Amino acid sequence: MTARRGAERYVLAIDQGTTSTRCILFDRRATVVAVARAEHPQSYPRPGWVEHDAARIWRDTRKLIRRALQSAGIGDDQVAAIGIANQRETAVVWDRATGVPVAPAIVWQDTRTSAQVADLDATLFRDRTGLPPATYFSALKVKWLLDDVPGLRARAERGEVLFGTMDSWLIWNLTGGKEHLTDVTNASRTMLMDLATLRWDAELLEVCTIPPAMLPAIRSSSEVFGTAVEVLPGVPIAAAIGDQQAALFGQTCFAPGDAKCTYGTGGFLLMNTGSTPVRSAHGLLTTVGYRIGAEPVAYALEGSIAIAGSLVQWVRDGLGLIGTASEIETLAATVTDNGGCYIVPAFSGLFAPHWRSEARGVIVGLTSYITKGHLARAVLEATAWQTREVVDAMNADSGLALTGLDVDGGMTADNLLMQIVADVLEVPVVRPMVAETVSLGAAYAAGLAVGYWSDQQDLRNNRHRAGRWLPGADAARRAAEYRKWQRAVDCAVLFSSEDQGQE
Amino acid sequence: MIQSIERSSAVLRLLAAGPDRLRVKEIADALGLPKSTAHSILRTLEHVGFAEQDPRTARYRLGRGLTELGKAGLDVNELRSRALDWADTLAARSVESVRIGALQSGSARVVHHVFRPDDTTQSMDNGLIIPAHATSLGKVLLAYDAPAADAVARAGLDAYTRRTVTNRRALAGSLGEIRAQGWGGAVEEWEMGRAGIAAPLRTFGGLVVGAIGIYGPVERICDSRQRPRPALVELVCATAQSISRDLTGPRS
After folding, report:
1. Can you tell me the mean pLDDT for A266-274?
2. Chain A closest CA to B80's CA: distance in Å?
3. CATH 3.40.50.2300 applies to domain B3-70
4. B32's torsion region: left (phi>0), alpha (psi -120 to 50) or beta?
5. Where in chain B are the domains?
6. Which among A20, A56, A343, B49 would be 20 to 30 A from B93, CA to CA?
7. Is residue B209 over pLDDT 60?
8. Which CATH number applies to B76-248?
9. CB-based contact B77 A414, cutoff 8 Å
10. Within the 104-133 window of chain B, which residues sit less than 8 Å (CB to CB) from chain A?
């Protein structure tokens, strides 16, 4: 055995994401002690289809857990608990007896069920689950498997096959097939859970023709789900939580009004709204933020920014204006403002709060004065204004006023973007010291359940600011620019509706 | 003469001359080289940014690195993005604030700042110009850039404290010492009561593109003899080496 790091104990976080799985060990001060990571293949068998090999993901997870412990030089008995954060909505159905998936996992991005969305009663689903019917959520993916795989529905009714999101799949495998469980955040993304009772809804199950026998039991996000039999025998599995909710928890957004935004190819903004669900009048999703054991559940509003980093990638790969994504900041810094130019990146429609799927992107305000520097600035501003629109919708829905935004994700390296976000939102923007907020959230939830950390204040004490951007003073100018952005958004809608009118 | 450099320059001339992008075989045939040799040269040129391969056609052309040969070879924002996690870790381990600096038109500029991990109110130094001859970050940058060091010395070495190095010869000596030991310290040379430790960030071939360092109260940064604490020096140097390894690794 390698030299062991004393007798200190650690929490192991598994972040089972869309493109990769990561295992990270944290110590009591929430510093990263070891990281092991592996990518898994994305399978696109037909247009709009996206699949994962769940068995491969479990094999990866086994290997990564061992590798993380090895790289930290610690023994199995030094792992105090395992916490799981996972890609949400992705559906796996497997054979209860053999543990073999009956079909590839259908990933959240998969749109094969789009024709069935219109058949669902939008009001019913929205009232009951907080979600508008969409291909995104698990329910229709499960239904599709039951309809498509011969004999599957009958087997599901007999309880021979099980459904789960990735958290359930990993818990089931870690416990050697003993526990079939999920947490309330993951369950809230299936489109099958009643947001008020936090139970599976019989009526929705019937509408989606999903047999209750195949469903996991719903638990809180932070409690002992079972004891590992595989890989780390004897170690408690003490948390499961959807990845965006894990980031909210890892950012210690524990008070109503606390919000975080993860900036990657897109952006995910979640605001803690406290113990009663806030129904959105602006097309935001109402979801469960987290639940610690038997404590009251914390609900959240969620809004996504469809195009953030992917707009920068388009400037790099589509236009060739920059060589690397980071150079967008260098280019944008060659000018002091956008020169009157706005880019609305409605590449696949406008998301919350507009929900205009027919809209397409526009660049407006062009004059001969505009250089590529102005375009680069408009690119960064587009991410900031989209954030502002989601925040405004959240403030209006929740009656809370955002007082600061906690940020994470790759784009937080862009200093100018973070400053623009602070200016545009007119609140401070804070980057925490631990970049791995998803894993940290899972570790925190697991550590709380087993007493590794004593309470939420204990977690807050670990949190340190790595950077903070304060809003600039010129509110009048911001207001004028916001109006221009809103007119640019109108242009994006107008342009494509004209197009449709002529068909 | 070094043969591989001669061959590489021939490959670059071919890439520059042709109106179209070239295949590995076309380059090998033109120079009378085995295909494997041509391929190795092209891979290396691509690694340093002097050649680019079209992912669809597998053909090569000149890289963007050549069009901006005069620049340090690494965009400062790219530098920040690649160093971000390492800088956070340095701040967490040293419990001090961390800054990354780069030379921009002769002055040392802060391009990244991580707060000290305590709950005090701190403001971002990003974009701040700091005196190159009076700070550890600045002196490390000057140590590996002779023209910049000359220009700074000629412009006059302002005294900020009684410990600021204001003599050109003394500065040159101090920069030589930094090159010899691989890191630099500055104790109360800019602000009284404050000290810093910094080390160079290197890319391909050892080219220095920036410096990373910690900065804080003398009593925390230095030992009782006002010398930078060895444990902190080791931490800064190890971080600089990790970032440098990352910078010369494959681009993601």
Report:
1. 93
2. 7
3. no
4. left
5. 3-70, 76-248
6. A20
7. yes
8. 3.30.450.40
9. yes
10. 112-115, 117-119, 122-124, 126
